[in-house]
Amino acid sequence: MKKTWFAFFLIAAVSVSCVSKKKFNAEVAKSTLLNDSLNRITNQLDACLSDKQAQRNEIKRLEAEVVSLRASANNLMSQMSDLSVISKSQAESIKRSLENISSKDSYIKDLQSAMARKDSLNMQLVLSLKGALKDINDKDVEIKVEGSAVFVDISDKLLFKQNSFEVEGGALRVLEKVATVLKAQKDITFMVEGHTDSIPMNGKILEDNWDLSVLRATAVVRILQKKYGLDPTKLIAAGRAEYKPLTENVSADGRARNRRTRIVILPQLDQFFKLIEPKK
User: Fold this and answer.
1) Which of 142, 209, 252, 266 could pair with 241 in a Cys bridge, judged by C-beta atoms 3.0 to 4.6 Å apart?
2) Percent of the chain predicted with pLDDT > 90
3) What is the per-residue pLDDT across 172-217, written as a single tens digit (0 to 9) for each?
4) CA-to-CA separations, 12 to 25, 46, 85, 138, 245, in angstroms, rounded
C-alpha cells in the first residue's frame, strides 16, 4: 500500500497542468471540507453512545456516509491528479484524509463488536438470574433488559409487610439467590430502588412515601452487603416513592404492581469504552 501511495504522489509531483491556480485551490478546499465532514462524523458517533437503539440507527447512517465520503475522496484525488504540482505537505494532508476514512470503517466495526459483546453479557446475566429464581412465582419476580441495564423487579408482598421497611424472613431466600448471581459479576454496579404506590403515608415514623421507598432500598442493600457479602462499593440505595409507577394506581392490582423493589444492574461505562478504544 505504501509503495502504491509513493508511486501515485511521485507521478502527481511531476504532473503539470494548464488549469488555473484558482481551480487548484478550490479542489484543496474540498479536501479541507472532507476532513471537517470526518470530524463531524466522529462527534456524532461518540454522542450516540448514550442510547443503544440510536447507536444502531446512527451506525447504519454513518456507514452509508463513509461510503459516500470515500467516493468523494477518490473523485477528488482523480481531479487533483490533473491539476498543477502538488506539494509534499498537501499530498500528505490528502493521504491522511483518506486514511481517516478507513479508520472510521474500523471504528464502526469495533463499536458494533463491543455492543454485541455487551448485549451477550446482559443476556447471560438474565439467563443466570432466571435459572437461580426458577422456583419463584413469575408474578412475584420479573427479570428483563431495558437499554443497557438488567432489571430485577421483586414484588412488595415477597419482601415487606404493608407500610413496613423490615425485610420478611421468607424473602431472604430470594435475596440469597439474587446475591449469588450478582457476586459473580466483577465489573458491574447494582442499584436497589424502592417503589411505592400513591397512597400517602399516615404513620408517625415515616413522613411520606419517599421515606418508605428509601428505607426499603437501604434495608435490602444492607442484607446484600452484610448477609450475602456483596461489595458495598458496588451498591447504590435509592428511593423513587410513587413517581415511577409501572401502571396506574387506580386499582388494588395496579397498586400492588407498583409496590416493588427493583435491582438495577448497571454496566460500568468505562469498561464498555475500553472495548472500543483504538488498539495500539
Assistant:
1) 209
2) 29
3) 989 999 999 988 887 788 999 999 999 998 777 888 999 999 999 9
4) 16, 36, 7, 71, 68
Burial 57-66 (b: 16+ CB within 10 A, else e): ebbeebeebb
Q: Give the DSSP letter string of 163-202.
A: T--SPPGGGHHHHHHHHHHHHT-SSEEEEEEEE--SPPP-
Question: Cβ of 39: how many Cβ atoms within 10 Å?
Answer: 11
How many residues appear in the chain? 280
Cell of 68: 459516500
Amino acid at 186: K
Cell of 195: 417503589
Distance CA 31, CA 212 (A): 62
Of 233, 237, 234, 253, nearest to 245 by C-alpha is 253
Residue whose C-alpha is closest to residue 171's, from 185, 181, 161, 184: 161
